[in-house]
From TrEMBL:
Keywords for the protein's UniProt record, in alphabetical order: Hydrolase
The protein, known as: Peptidase C60 sortase A and B
One Pfam family of this chain: Sortase
Protein source organism: Sinomonas atrocyanea
GO molecular function, one term: hydrolase activity
UniProt keyword Cell membrane present: no
Length: 89
């Protein structure tokens, strides 16, 4: 549980996304942008590939990023999970 009140956070099931899954984002004005997931990667925070994750892309893309790899000994997350998706509509 990682949200206020003890419930699951907004990205609690991010691990469940797989290539081909769709992510819909509501735009101002009510229209939706639809993205298709094409990969997920887990990166150590100490070696986070900033350019790979935040760099320019040939088209419109979405990155969903959350903490991962909870370390009970430190109470910290050692990793990040990044889901990559390309704009369909």
């Amino acid at each position: 549980m990682n949200a206020y009140g003890g419930g699951p956070g907004v990205f609690a099931r991010l691990h469940d996304l797989k290539p081909g899954d769709r992510v819909e984002v509501r735009r101002d004005g009510g229209s939706q942008a639809v993205f298709a997931v094409y990969r997920s990667e887990k990166y150590a925070k100490a070696a986070f590939p900033t350019t790979t994750v935040y760099g320019n892309t040939a088209g419109s893309e979405l990155r969903l990023i959350t903490c991962d790899g909870y370390n009970a000994a430190t109470g910290e997350f050692d990793d990040n999970l990044v889901v990559y998706a390309k704009l369909l509509v």
